[in-house]
Amino acid sequence: MLFDNLKKYRVILASNSPRRKELLAGLGVTYEVRTLPDVDESYPHTLQGADIPLYISRAKADAYRPLLRPDELMITADTIVWLDGRVLGKPTDREEAIQMLRDMSGRTHEVFTGVCLTTTEWQRSFAASTEVRFAPLSEEEITYYVDRFRPMDKAGAYGVQEWIGYIGVEYIAGSYYNIMGLPVQRLYRELREI
């Protein structure tokens, strides 16, 4: 069996993200969800690019670690959009979401996801990077997407699997699933090596 090596663990996904739940289930991993309220997602502002979600995924793991039992393997993750040397996180309101999409229109940005695998005895982490190019987006397309899909829970104010991805994404270099929030191919390899 593919995941015989995981039989000694109960796999815990420490995330409320419906996309991460769907992607982990798609790998064929049996898991349960465990979340804590108000996990600190701040990071030192000296960090750049992939180091940011890597730091946050480890910080999330550290918050949960005291609750882990010896037979549990926890997965934490964080995803950011990186454009012009700055983070585009989850928008706080409609206007910020619209501005983020304006900024990415006709341009290339990067999506970084940090993933941390943690047990009571060890911790392993990695980051994945995907380059995404948006076609030029009209103001009408941007406002239609934001008003209809309300992407306030998504880094960079967009879900690649939604309408904006259908009409806007011209080019992807790297993992499509990383853009959704979990680089499942890399996660699969890491889980197989445990």
Q: Give the biggest beta sheet.
A: 7 strands, mixed
Count up the helices: 7
Per CATH, the architecture is Alpha-Beta Complex
Mean pLDDT: 95
- Give the termini distance in whole angstroms: 14 Å
- Overall morphology: elongated
Q: Identify the CATH class.
A: Alpha Beta
Query: Based on helices, strands and strand pairing, what is the structural class?
Result: alpha/beta
Domain module tally: 1
**What is the CA-based Rg, rounded?**
17 Å
The counted number of beta strands is 7
Fraction of helical residues: 25-40%
Task: Assign the CATH topology.
Answer: Maf protein
Beta-strand content estimate: 25-35%
Order of helices and strands: EHEHEEHEEHHEHH
Segments where pLDDT lies below 50 for 5+ residues? none
What is the secondary structure topology, with strand pairs?
Layout (H helix, E strand, L loop, with lengths): L9 E4 L4 H9 L4 E3 L17 H14 L7 E12 L2 E3 L5 H11 L3 E11 L4 E12 L4 H11 L13 H6 E5 L2 H5 L3 H9 L2
Parallel strand pairs: 1-2, 1-3
Antiparallel strand pairs: 3-4, 3-5, 5-6, 6-7
Jot down its keywords.
single chain; 194 residues; alpha/beta; Maf protein; 7-stranded mixed sheet; 7 strands; 34% helix; elongated
